[in-house]
């Protein structure tokens, strides 16, 4: 099997309910969405890109139904986030103000046409959806945090939100 970059005893599995990869420790039976401490982020990036990236496969999801939408996001966490760690950093120590400066610069670059949300999300998002260009797939009302959901459902297809704040951190959302 390819080198995952995960510490011994950890492996990547796929959630049956969400269809997303997560991390599982075969010894302790611990499971988590964020990579465990001791992960080599560069090796993990290569592994996830090779084995767990989505090529926009919607065949099993159809259109998501009439009340579901599909969106992608770029997440910048800060020390006050619900879980201040990510696949990129085991412990996030930036302040909320620093996170706001970072995401505002990402927003500027996207709106100026220098890059796309998907391109930036792949390398910069603190969410595990980064490996899918930030793609969260289809979701309905009630599936996401209220602030995120309200912003996502208010967008027209192809639109990108301004900065949206949730307990998880700061987001840019593209429908």
Automatic annotation (TrEMBL):
Enzyme category, top tier: isomerase
Domain PpiC: 66-175
SUPFAM superfamilies reported in the protein's UniProt record: FKBP-like (SSF54534), WW domain (SSF51045)
Highest taxon of the lineage: Eukaryota
Gene Ontology molecular function, alphabetical: isomerase activity
Protein EC: 5.2.1.8
Catalyzed chemical reaction(s): [protein]-peptidylproline (omega=180) = [protein]-peptidylproline (omega=0)
Bilayer-crossing regions: none
Limits of the WW domain: 4-38
Residues in coiled coil: 96-123
Keyword line: Coiled coil, Isomerase, Rotamase
InterPro entries (alphabetical): PPIase_dom_sf, PPIase_Pin1, PPIase_PpiC, WW_dom, WW_dom_sf
PANTHER family xrefs: PEPTIDYL-PROLYL CIS-TRANS ISOMERASE, PEPTIDYL-PROLYL CIS-TRANS ISOMERASE-RELATED
Name under which the protein is recorded: Peptidyl-prolyl cis-trans isomerase
Source organism phylogeny: Eukaryota, Fungi, Dikarya, Ascomycota, Pezizomycotina
């Amino acid at each position: 099997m390819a080198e995952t970059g995960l510490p011994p005893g950890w492996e990547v599995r796929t959630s049956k309910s969400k269809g997303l990869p997560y991390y599982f420790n075969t010894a302790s039976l611990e499971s988590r969405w964020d990579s465990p401490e001791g992960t080599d982020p560069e090796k993990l990036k290569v592994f996830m890109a090779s084995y767990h990236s989505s090529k926009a496969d919607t065949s099993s999801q159809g259109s998501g139904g009439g009340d579901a939408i599909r969106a992608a996001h770029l997440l910048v966490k800060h020390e006050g986030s619900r879980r201040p760690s990510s696949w990129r950093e085991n412990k996030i120590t930036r302040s909320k103000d620093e996170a706001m400066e970072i995401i505002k610069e990402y927003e500027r670059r996207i709106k100026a046409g220098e890059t796309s949300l998907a391109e930036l999300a792949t390398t910069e998002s603190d969410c595990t959806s980064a490996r899918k260009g930030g793609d969260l797939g289809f979701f309905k009302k009630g599936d996401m945090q209220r602030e995120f959901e309200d912003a996502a459902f208010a967008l027209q297809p192809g639109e990108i939100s301004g900065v949206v704040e949730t307990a998880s951190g700061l987001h840019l959302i593209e429908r």
